[in-house]
Amino acid sequence: MITFLFFLPFLLGFVVIGVYGERKIAAFIQNRLGPMEVGPKGILQTIADLLKMLQKEDILPKAADGKLFLAAPLVIFAAVFAGYAVLPLTEGVAGAGVAAGLFFLLAIVSLDVLGILMAGWGSNNKFALFGAMRSVAQIISYEVPLGLSILGVVMISQTLDLQEMTINQGILTAQPIYLFGIKSLGLEVGHIGGFLSWNVVQSPILIVSFVIFFIAGLAEANRTPFDLPESESELIGGYHTEYSGFRWGLFMLAEYGMMLLISFLGAILFFGGWNTPLPNIGTLALADWTTGLWWGGFWLIGKAMVLIFVMMWVRWTYPRLRVDQLMDLSWKYLTPIAVIVLFICGVWRLWMI
Amino acid sequence: MTPIDVAFFFFLIVTGLAGIGILLTRNVIHAAMLLVIVLLGVAGLYVLFRAEFAAVVQVLIYAGGIVVLIAFGVMLTNRPENGKLMTGNHLVLPALLVSSGLFYYLVQGIQLLDPIATQQVAKLPEDQVEYIGAAFMTDYIVAFELIAFILLVVLVGAAYLAKHHSRL
Fold first, then answer.
1. Omega of the bond prior to A225 within 30 degrees of 0, cis?
2. Which residue of A36, A150, A215, B67 has the fewest CB atoms within a 10 Å radius of its CB?
3. Would an 8 Å CB–CB cutoff place A121 in contact with chain B?
4. Residue pair B132/B53 in contact by the 8 Å Cβ criterion
5. To 10 degrees, the CA torsion angle through A203, A204, A206, A210?
6. Comparing C-alpha atoms, which of A275, A272, A146, A279 is closest to residue A199?
7. How many pairs of residues across A and B have Cβ atoms under 8 Å apart?
8. Closest-CA distance of chain B to residue A140, Å
9. Do A111 and B63 touch (CB under 8 A)?
């Protein structure tokens, strides 16, 4: 239920703020002002755009394959949103209690490929079909390094349950946590908590894993520099060229939903989920003070927002990749590195921890 | 009717209707998309039978992988003159015979295995992932390694076929 009661309204709110934030960040990076007209500092710009979008006519092209065309946005959004079902929000609020939670998330999110194919094919438009082809090829290729980088985390933390994984990264854990995961150092940091017990610090090799995860995640979300599927300058808008009104809005919602999901997942897998970043220092028990039901949500969302900011920053910094460079990056660089990291993670788990 | 029963019949009916839809539709892409519904419905049934892991694998491999492959294959083939890819129903009688024969043996097999299977399910541990992983590495190691080997062969073969051949 938490998914519907919290994540759905949160996602809708996030998209409104996210679009405004993205414009402002883009404007800042490009040394201009961004939206300034509607409301103070242009805060209401997204609301205005939203109202305009909702009033648009829902156009069904004459030559389109009606059923596929109309169902596609729903499939994409449903697939992305189903991933939220297993996210743990805070201490007591764990989402769906699926033992294979992380695996389920990866599986269900990969279904959005089908929605994209349906949109591209159903539109009966070459640009849409090109966009869909590129998008599907890209998403399937990048699922390999994404899965391998996540597998390293799973190996280190020995569970697929995201809530359990989060608990093992903070002061609430029952297992001993050693500094940098090296047992022979003999420094037990489980009671200190804070950032010292996060996965990236528990086993520093996961930093490489995180970089791979983040790059692959950007590609999964079709974000720049991997936005070839919808590259405006060559494909008009890719698979959502033919859509208008609320159905187009659903594509936008799914894109931002995917961004948010990748950010949440990155925060949970590598940066301690809802655990506080502040450690206990002697009598200054910062970690104990900042752990709790409401703090948990605050930290998780805060970490996700930082990752979202990095995504936007990347978008306005790097140019778009070419198709062959895109495939090279995935198959020739990310996948081999991810396999090596996976191997090191296994060895690390056996010998160090 | 418990909620589980309701969910069971829901998935059953959805799967059945989508399956019939595959037979009746003439449009290949529609058939592929209906196949997704069938596979997802079966995954739902797996969940109801406490086989979460099998359900997730079903979604990942079949719905997310195989169907995309089928759809890709259809989209990459050239469209015929009239612009639409259509299928027809051929060899209706042999197909009916073969499938009803298979169905008969499936029912027989299920009835035969039912008591054993029920005991097995009752013995299943809570943590399925760990159990399956351990079983792969101990009881089923030969099958596991063989499949891994065959997949490697397939991968190498696919890479060879896809290679750009210079004319000899």
1. yes
2. A36
3. yes
4. yes
5. 140
6. A272
7. 63
8. 9
9. yes
- Helix/strand/coil for A174: coil
Q: Decide if B30 and A68 are in contact by the 8 Å CB cutoff.
A: yes
Which residues, including other chains, have CB under 8 Å from residue A74's CB and lie 6 or more apart?
Answer: A115, A250
pLDDT computed for residue B147 by the predictor: 93
pTM for the model stands at: 0.86
ipTM for the complex shown: 0.79
Burial status of residue A306 (CB atoms within 10 A of its CB: 0-12, 13-18, 19 or more): middle
Positions in chain A whose pLDDT score sits under 50: none
Q: Which helix (H) or strand (E) holds A19?
A: helix A8-29
pLDDT in the model for residue A235? 67
Residues making up chain A, counted from first to last: 353
In B, minimum Cα distance to A106 occurs at B60
Angle at A237 between CA A235 and CA A239, to 5 degrees: 95
Q: Which residue has the tokens 């210079």?
A: B166
- Do B53 and B129 contact (CB within 8 A), yes or no? yes
The predicted pLDDT at position A229 comes to 67
| Nearest by Cα to B66 from B57, B77, B78 | B57
Contact between B45 and B11 under an 8 Å Cβ cutoff? The reply is: yes
Highest mean pLDDT among A45-59, A216-230, B66-80, B92-106: B92-106
Closest CA to A193 of A87, A94, A305, A284: A284
CB A110 within 8 A of CB A298: no
Least confident of B30-34, B44-48, B76-80, B164-168: B164-168
Distance, in Å, from the CA atom of B150 to the CA atom of A84, rounded to the nearest integer, reads 36
Considering only the beta carbons, identify the residue of B27, B52, B64 that sits closest to A99. Answer: B52
- Under 8 Å CB-to-CB from B66, ≥6 apart: which residues? none
Contact A102, A86 (CB under 8 A): yes
> Is B18 in the A-facing interface, judged by CB distances under 8 Å?
no
Contact at CB, B33 and A118, closer than 8 angstroms = yes
Task: Judge whether B63 is closer than 8 Å to chain A, CB to CB.
Answer: yes
**Identity of the amino acid at B118:** T
**Which candidate in B26, B38, B56 is best for mutational testing of the A interface (most A CBs within 10 A)?**
B56
The Cα–Cα gap between A300 and A147 comes to 22
Chain B residue whose CA is closest to A137: B72
How many Å apart are CA B73 and CA B75, to the nearest integer? 6
